[in-house]
Amino acid sequence: MMGLRGETVTVSTELLADGRRRLRFQSLHEVLADAERLAAGPVQTLGQWTFPQIVQHIADAMRGSLDGFGFQAPWLARTLIAPLVKNSLLTKGMKPGFKLPDSAQSLLPAKDVTLDAAMDCLRKVVARFESEQPQAPHPFLGKLASQEHHSLHMRHSELHLSFVVPAS
User: Fold this and answer.
1) Residue 7 has what pLDDT?
2) CA 16, 126, 20 angle in degrees (round to 5)?
3) Which residue, among 123, 111, 122, 120, has the nearest Cα to 50 in the 3D structure?
4) What residues make up the domain containing 152?
5) Alpha-carbon span 5 to 62, nearest angstrom
6) What is the per-residue burial (b if ≥16 Cβ within 10 Å, else e) of 108-122?
7) 16 lies in a domain?
8) What is the mean pLDDT of the chain?
C-alpha cells in the first residue's frame, strides 16, 4: 500500500490471540494510511469503542501534544512511575486495559462522532505535525523531545487501531 507521500506502508495482517491486529508504525503517515485503508471498507471493532471513536481519540491525543492537554497525572505518577516506564512506552508499545482518569475526560471521544469527522481531524493533526513541533508536556511523561512525541503517538495508535479489524 502506498502512503500519502509515496512511501510504502506495510501493515501486518497477523492477528494476536485475542483477535486484534499486530501493528508497528514507523511514521504518523503510516498511522493515517492504516486508518484510511480501514475507513474504505467494512470493519469490526473488538473493544468498547467504535472505529470513529478510536480515530477521534488518536487525533485528540496528537492534538494535545501541539496545543496542550489541559490536565496532568498526579505528581507521584509523573515523578516516580513515568521515568521507569517511559522508554518501554516509546519503544515497545502500550498494553490494553488502561482506563483514563477522570481528569482526562477531554480525551474520551463523543459517542456520536462520525467517521468522516474523525478522519478529517486525524488528517489535519497529522498535517500539523509536518509543520509544527510538538512542545506541550505530556500529562504523564512530561516534557518530550519531538521524536519522542512521534514515537508515543505511533505506539498509542498501534494499541487503539489494533482493535479495528477488516470485516471478512
Assistant:
1) 55
2) 10
3) 111
4) 51-95+106-166
5) 20
6) ebeeebebeebbebb
7) no
8) 91
Question: Hey, what's the cell of 31?
Answer: 498511522
- Asked if residue 29 belongs to a domain, the reply is no
pLDDT tier at 27, thresholds 50, 70, 90: very high
Q: Phi and psi of 2, rounded to 5°? A: -95, 140
**Vertex 165 angle, CA 30 and 118, to 5°:** 60
Backbone angles phi, psi at 94, to 5 degrees: -115, 150
3-state secondary structure of 15: strand
pLDDT band at 146 (very low <50, low <70, confident <90, very high): very high
* pTM for this entry: 0.90
113 inside domain: yes
The rounded percent of the chain whose pLDDT value lies above 90 is 77
Name the more confident of 54 and 11.
54
Residues 37, 82: Cα–Cα separation, whole Å: 34
pLDDT of res. 15: 82
DSSP state of 41: S
Whether 147 is covered by a domain: the verdict is yes
